[in-house]
Protein 1
Amino acid sequence: MRVLFDGRAPIDYGQIYLTSRELPDMTGAFAGQVNGLCGAGDPGRLFLMAGTHYGHVGFRVELHDAEPPEAAPQWQDVVEVSFVPRAGVVNLVPWGDGSLAALPLLEDGQDTGPLPVFRVRYCAAGMDEGRDPYGGHDPDELEDGDYTYLDQRPDRYLLCFWPDAGPRGDAILRRTSAAAAYWHDWAARLPAPPTLWERVEAELRERRERQRRQEERQRLEEARRWGGRPPSERLRRVRGNVYGIALLDRDLVDGIAALDDAAQRRIAVWAARRACTVARIADLDWFAPAWRALERGEPLPAEFTDVPALLTRIRGKRTYTVSVSVRRLGWARTDPLRDALDGPVEPVAMALPALVAAAAADPLQAALEAVWAAVSTYAARRGEFLAEIRRAFPTVDRPAGQAGASS
């Protein structure tokens, strides 16, 4: 037998703990037990009750090689529990404080494999006397400021460990004091802890709820990106810069998505030509190969796929991209998208991406990107373009109930 601790242990709120990690939960420690003095419901932790509410009590911890003899008669209350440590060394921890003592339950070098099951016997004496705030001292005989009686609490405790074959239920071996009876009765009234299957079911429910919330967040975020309602599966597969037009005119997007590939390609070429017309570059002689390629459904000639190079050729000088950030004090945007479109734009720089977009491999992407580039070119006059496209392609104005339907 080895003595792991023998001294005075501080007690607060009638509690002290034994743990190798976090502290135990009071209800979780005792739920399902018959005894209310030594709670072992939280794996790797013990919740120990004392008669003293506040003060220092005698406390001894012993480690035995085998089950020790029956507790001596001086121990009025005796209970047993099973305990599986999470480490070879556990700590005796007072309430609201750090470790009082490290208790090595295994010899050095023996904590590398599975940790053994221990049986724990918790013995108490003088619990009822410990419930007396003055511990049997006459308060009238104590001098002002004399709190030495807190270091001389009458109750004392013994905690014995020994290896056991496996976990067993807890037991009350001796029941004497009213204080112990109170805690035993309290533990007996606790709801039974959930079974393993109930814990598994609760975890599965929690996972399903987390998944549902995540999917709902994703659905709402997707709807926000697409102008307020979820996209069709066909729209969801579209890549490229298509969210701007979806936020501006979602009904138009659904109308275009409902058309066949040939109609979408016609819209793409038409929108590119309208953008370049507004920018006054559509009729440039050297643009003819680009228009021929688009009309025939062929790839753009290589010289028309480099927008910066096209800008340089049109302007006759090298172009640079400049980013400017402006903060207006006392002014807040009500609609950032429309505010951006209402600002000053360089029509040529806005129109050229429509040319490149119209040649995209996916006809729907080509149409949506070219339409957005045209809207950006029209800028503050975008209402004119949106009216023009509906006149040129009446089929894009489908009843709301048919939006997103296939043609």
Protein 2
Amino acid sequence: MAVVVPRSFRLLAELEKGQKGEGAEGCTWGLERADDITLTTWTCTIFGPPGTAYENRIYNLTIICGEQYPDRPPTVRFNTQINISPVDRHGAVNGLSTLQNWNRNYTMETILENLRREMVSPQNRRLPQPPEGTTY
């Protein structure tokens, strides 16, 4: 029988990995407020991959890990405007397969890695982008 890690332990492990910079290439994450004892609201960054329309850009996101995380996916939203297929016109990430087919073993890092992968995918890599620094 598998051991189910409680939400707070899981999020503390994710926080530690994010703070140590041991995460996915081109991605960072951490708590939005250091005093958030519920470990709910996270601020994340994706650095645009080279050779794409996102190159030399920094994208800021907010991830909300509700009470059911990691059994249910978090809410993910870009704060920096981006033109990419899994993101709607308000910045909400709705079309990412990682969120649609959520698995308790996925993490915030998994989400950020998959979003960065979307940036280099053939359907997204050359999409025209909003002016740099534009927010929702």
Protein 3
Amino acid sequence: MPLNILGAAVFDGVDSIPYLRPVLTWSPYLAFIGAIKYWSGGPSNTWERNLHGKLYIVTGGTTQSMGTSVVLDMARRGAQMIVLCRKIDEWSEEWCEQMRELTGNELIYLEQCDLSDLFEVRKFATKWLDNAPPRRLDGIIVMSGDCEPWGLRKKKTSTDGIEIQMATNYAGVFHLLNLMKPSFKAQPPDRDVRIIVTTCFLQAMGKCNVEDPLWLHAPFKNSRELFSSSKLQLSLAMLHLQRLLITEAGNSAKDGRSGKNVTVTVVQPGLMRSPSLRRVVSNGSVLLLLILYCVILYPFLWLLTKSGYRGAQTIIYSITTPELEEVNRTDDEVKYIANCSIVNFARKEFYDKELQEKLYENTIKQIESVEKKMAAQRNQASKKETKDQKKNTKPNPKKASTKKD
């Protein structure tokens, strides 16, 4: 059949074959669009590593984009997961049941932990650490994030009074990983423990506020600045966390462990058609979402951005690649992974160890200060509530005397 068509085209001309001329006319354009789509999709993870018997804590897993794709892939590989979510409700429970049905893995569990609330983060970490013997932990996969509309002119804060993006993207994640250090160090020296933290290419536009890392006293200019700065500061703090884990393990270990079995990795999954992108493009408006995003820009976004599944490939690569195992590492530095390959950091702050250490220490101090302030407020509210309850339950002397009469 192909030879007959080719012969007719050669001897009888192109016009003798129906629709061949339009096909030849449009083929270069379609090939060009296909090449762009293939390039923008990025590479796929090729490691076929099983995760049977491994236990991971996952944040941001319930998002209907990259997070869900990562959870599905890990569950199909046999991993047990503790998925942290802001609130356990009917929707989240239905999502969890759906993940179990799709993968045949019943070892997917939900735990409530709002990363924008430092008190909830401490409660979860304390509950996790308050266990003897120490619980198994093979890694923490951080994919959670908050990106507010860039046109937002009013500062939106968390329950602790921290700007919501800085609280969710930086303070909460930092607090969780810092509190979980005893669990990392308690793992056997032959266990490959991976701390994988996602970032965004917009961190290149961020600022590192070393003296005020939670931006409590900085003036609010726009949401974009705080989003990019939260991602930049988290990446910088992770570099110092890696050094702390190795140093503390070497100083306190009695069995010769090096601490290098616990690796911290910063992952940039690429530009995706995610809820954050929809919020930025639509500026939080439903009308703009329907017209601008879904109708006008979607063909271009489909062509130039990744789907959640394609973005998840870099995360899965970071979980499964043997390059991060202690036996294969040539140095102790944090690896930066983009498009399923290890790349170099671009900004000079990533090579300033003194800045990273100061940022880490100042963040701990500010978080402790905020926690003490909020604890005092909770105590006052509790005392007031107890006082009101006693006042309401106090017997009325007039009613008591009437009954006695």
Protein 4
Amino acid sequence: MVEQTIFYKDLGNGLPVVFIHPPGMGHKVFLYQENLSQSYRVLLPDLNGHGMSSKRDNPVSIAGFSLDIKEMLDHAGIEKAVICGYSAGSMVAQDFVISYPERTHAMILSGGFPKVNSFVLATEYKIGMRLVKKNRERLANIIARSHTKHPTFQHALKSYMMKADPTVWYEFYKESYHYDCSQQLSTIKVPVLLLYGKRETWMKKHIPYYNQCAFCTLQQIPKAFHQLPSRQSVYFNRIIDHFLTEQAPLFQNMISK
């Protein structure tokens, strides 16, 4: 625990890798990324108001979630980490990297975007916000079923999402819907890995923004949609491992010269 507020799992040893979840989900969505702890130190936080983390009194904000991550790293005694954001969790990852570059080793975005800039994505946000207020159990069920076919994992995801504070869940949606770091991406000077499923065609509008990042790699997984950490976990983990062992060190050498 961090000041009895932020819960996180801390697994393995080696280069620290932090996985940041989307609204409502908590760290459970990264069940299969725990396997990476065989080679890395894997940190899986529940952001403020999610899972086993308590709700803070301050207003919900992307910057506030970034502070959660910084406080977790301080508590764990970690100077620098790889920051991985999934879906809307990518907003928190990008905000952290922009705000705390000295604490960042590299950035990984799975289905990431610097701002909401497509009709499909905007529609998904609006549906999510409406369901959080009207029927969050139904929303949790839809999200859980979209992430796995396995009933046991579906139940675990749904149950964990129901632990999220509904106000924080809604505000996370709202804050990330309005967030925009597209003009600040050029300030990111660490290695960046972009991961997408080839079938999530609505993300194509967002990928060109990352041309501003000087040290960026794009990987698209064939026949895959958005839910890569759970639906394509073997490929997802393998790509991350290759990036961290092969590509990121090359970028780091270029950056240091």
